[in-house]
Amino acid sequence: MNAILPPWIILDPLLQQWLCEDIGRGDRTTASLLLQNRPSGSAYWVVKESGMVAGLTIAARVFELLDHEVEFTAIVSEGQWCEVGQTIAQLKGPLAALLTGERVALNLAMRLSGIATLTNRYTVALSDFPTQLVDTRKTTPGLRLLEKYATQVGGAINHRFGLDDAVMIKDNHIAAAGGIQEAIAQIRGKIPYPLTIEVETETLEQVQTALENQADIIMLDNMPLSIMLEAVEKIRSYNNRIKIEASGNITLETIRAVAETGVDYISTSAPITRSTWLDLSMKLGEGNWGIDYPLIRSV
């Protein structure tokens, strides 16, 4: 797992926004219970269903933003597969911060762990192929940075993060320009170096046009396997340096057959759009630490 987390200067405003959304004018329950003193305590996180854990570093940051005295210790590695009942993190510090930050931290970790878990199942299915799994821009608004981080944890590589990362000429762009040749001609002279040009194709005729107009990457979209195989052979014989991406209704049941055609990349939104949250829970106390800290102590 070589996932790279965006820097805190980028993530902190998002985390603060989500904390503000949840806290509103104040945590009424926690503030009412802990108004007279500032007790500290301990808690632990436990996995309630098997899966790959992701987002613990982000969860730790949530609590740190609330109170720098919170100690969040990950017991498992980011991207580690965990079983039901396994303890994955220990927390110590001001109880108010533990209770107030619980939901935002858990929500993010559960969402990201769910994505990492399903992504891992896709990458395992490709483990004996050179083909790489790629995510898409079908992400939850506001969560793209973290959801794409989670696909990396699961073993995928990121496609472009936004429209400014690369040129991708899709079917509607082709229709708007009047054809693939026209679209590439209009775009090539206007984009900065070193942006690449990728063209979405649905037929062998479109593949040929993309080749003749020097596309850097050719996407084979929703092609029957027999046609996809022909397209790969055509591209390889024309220019072996052109990268080939397959996309469109990729499932765990079909992904190996697509990889067998020889494409370089398979892109799918499924790990993000079809994943369910991995169930995690926070409990006050020590869990399976073997160290006896008091549940609450006043300071």
Automatic annotation (TrEMBL):
It comes from the Bacteria. Its EC number is 2.4.2.19. Keywords: Glycosyltransferase, Pyridine nucleotide biosynthesis, Transferase. It catalyses: nicotinate beta-D-ribonucleotide + CO2 + diphosphate = quinolinate + 5-phospho-alpha-D-ribose 1-diphosphate + 2 H(+). SUPFAM superfamilies: Nicotinate/Quinolinate PRTase C-terminal domain-like (SSF51690), Nicotinate/Quinolinate PRTase N-terminal domain-like (SSF54675). Residues 115-283 form the Quinolinate phosphoribosyl transferase C-terminal domain. GO terms for molecular function: nicotinate-nucleotide diphosphorylase (carboxylating) activity. Pfam families: QRPTase_C, QRPTase_N. InterPro entries: Aldolase_TIM, NadC, NadC/ModD, Nicotinate_pribotase-like_C, Quinolinate_PRibosylTase_N_sf, Quinolinate_PRibosylTrfase_C, Quinolinate_PRibosylTrfase_N. Pathway: Cofactor biosynthesis; NAD(+) biosynthesis; nicotinate D-ribonucleotide from quinolinate: step 1/1. Residues 29-113 form the Quinolinate phosphoribosyl transferase N-terminal domain. Involved in the catabolism of quinolinic acid (QA). Belongs to the NadC/ModD family. This is nicotinate-nucleotide diphosphorylase (carboxylating). It comes from Limnoraphis robusta CCNP1315.
